[in-house]
Amino acid sequence: MNSFETNRAVEDIVPNQLAKYLIATGWIDDGAISNKAKIWHRPEEAYFDLEVIQPLNSELRDYYLRVSEAIQVISEFEERTFGRITEEIINYDSDIIKVRVVSPDVEGGAIPIDDGVLLFERAKDLLVSSTLSAFKKKKFFSGSWPAAARDFLDTLRFGQTERGSYVVNVIAPLIKFSHESFLEADRSITRSVSNNLSTSLQATISAINKYEKTKDLMAFEEVVSSGVSANLCDALIGISGSRKNRDVEISIELAPSEKDSHEIITLHRFSTVHIPVLETASEYYKGNYVIRNYEVYGLVVRMDHEPSEDYGTVRVSSMVNGSEKNISMELGLDDYWEAVRAHKPNIPVTCQGDLHVTPRSAYLVNPRGFKVLDKPDLFDDEY
């Protein structure tokens, strides 16, 4: 914060916020001066001479001056900046999500206007995805939101932006209410969303690392239960900018007024080299993906062949990642007539190739090794 921002921020501090901060950081209440102020001291003998005078009525003529003096004493004692102390007092009852983009083009604390709009939109989407997955884990959220999730999201607000390189602050006041789809009564919904955001971001990083090593799409499937979704991936992609040229850092600052035994990772980093993997993950969660060297196993449900063609199209009913799909493939005539033979008696077939899946279709490209599974293997032990 600069001096102007600091002065504006002090005007937002009410007496009970300053008192909560002093109690939480170990200051001792040594009594009041009539009904106008309280005196606070440190319990440590070495610092007992330190004194904070807390004004009790914001209508006092010199209220903001006295608050500034109190913060200055706290700042000197904690050896932290006036602006930082002020921010923590104001947000004592709020978790803060800091969304930072890092790139040479934003080092001066400014960002191109279109990317700035995109950054704020996707920062909101990040919190939306984390909130929705705190209620229910899904690969892709669409349609209306649960009423409780909407009520919580309506409490969020954007705070002052920061330099370094460009930082957007999302302030989440601690909100606690009961709802049948949200049963974590031991903590606020705010803290549950913050914890869920941390868990899902860490799971996303783990899935990225695993996919980069194995190229196995199941790396993404495994982290859905941790809150990872297409919406989360799309938010991170958008935060990186319209040209996807900025690194992304998400940090989570937990409100000191709510104690939580659940320890979380508070800083998460995503490089621009992660963006293509996030795009692959997003498409997978939306049902658009390719599985290389996939082996189809199932029953023939449909055949199509034109007399003038030297191939035929076969559809095989098969399970793909837990969902039944009718997989189309073009086969040479020898394999096609084998598929026809397998159809009526419902004999299973198998075939390998690259499986292209969309929400409405599945297609096996470059099919090879088609077999009807009614013939014993050449090396079968049975005679």
Written description of the protein model:
With 383 residues, the chain is an alpha+beta fold. It has three domains: 3-91, Hypothetical protein (Metal Transport, Frataxin, Chain A, 2-Layer Sandwich), CATH 3.30.920.30; 94-286, no CATH class; 289-372, Beta Barrel (OB fold (Dihydrolipoamide Acetyltransferase, E2P)). 35% of the residues lie in helices and 27% in strands. Strand 1 and strand 2 form a beta hairpin.
List the helices and strands and how they pair.
Layout: H1 3-10, H2 15-24, E1 28-33, E2 37-41, E3 51-55, H3 63-78, H4 82-90, E4 94-102, H5 113-135, H6 147-153, E5 157-158, E6 162-163, E7 166-173, H7 189-214, H8 218-221, H9 230-239, E8 247-253, E9 267-270, H10 275-285, E10 289-304, E11 311-320, E12 323-332, H11 333-343, E13 349-357, E14 362-372
Parallel strand pairs: 12-14
Antiparallel strand pairs: 1-2, 2-3, 4-7, 4-8, 5-7, 6-7, 8-9, 10-11, 10-13, 11-12, 13-14
Helix pairs in contact: 1-4, 3-4, 5-7, 5-9, 9-10
